[in-house]
Amino acid sequence: MGTLRLELTDATLREWDATVLSSDPEDGIVLDRSAFFPGGGGQPPDEGVLVWGGVRTRITGARKTADDVYLLLVDGDPLPPAGTAVRGALDDERRTALMRTHSALHLLNGVIYRDWRLPVTSADMKPLEGRMDFDLPEVPEGFRDRVQEACLAEIAADRAIEVREVPAAEAFAIEQVAVAARDLLPTRLEQVRLVDIVGLDVEADGGTHVASTSFIRGLEIVKIENKGKGFRRLRLRLPA
Prior knowledge:
Blueprint: E1 4-5, E2 15-24, E3 28-31, E4 33-34, E5 48-52, E6 55-64, E7 69-73, E8 85-90, H1 92-116, E9 120-126, E10 129-135, H2 143-156, E11 161-167, H3 168-172, H4 175-181, E12 191-197, E13 201-204, E14 220-226, E15 231-237
Parallel strand pairs: 1-4
Antiparallel strand pairs: 2-3, 2-8, 3-7, 5-6, 5-8, 6-7, 9-10, 10-15, 11-12, 12-13, 14-15
């Protein structure tokens, strides 16, 4: 049956009730229901706590298997046995910062693809900071300022960010998805989860995002780095 992943359908959820399915000090804790994002697509896993029996178990990360999400606990913290009723709670400040950052990277990708037709090659992030690599042999004059201005305009436009699952064939009929994700997703996949900044960017993605671009609140293209072989790395920073 596995872990029901609550964050996939409600990225605003921060606290919930659950039951421990299994627990091991090394492998971690598996809940029947969890909103801890286990990491992926450049987004780090969530942190937080489990509250049970008058004690707290600190969660420092998570990892996903085919069916379960394993929560990793701080060494020495109490381990709730299987069958224990717990209250899960995310580190709200960290999760919200990562949601803003992840959405900002999608927005950046949308602007670069729309205006320059450049494919993204990789991405990574931490709270309020991120980077994206693009196949860009030469940097056009004024590129950084033009990209930043376009991103800020899209934040001000308050575009809705929608999440939906569609059949794989329908997802890969979208040009941007086909270019970015065809070689990254399993060929046997029947459904694809899409994150759509409506009118700007649509990507196959399993992460958590804010509800619209205005929640990103702003961004700065800090610098552009030459990573060799025609690749350029754009680093961005968000306001606290």
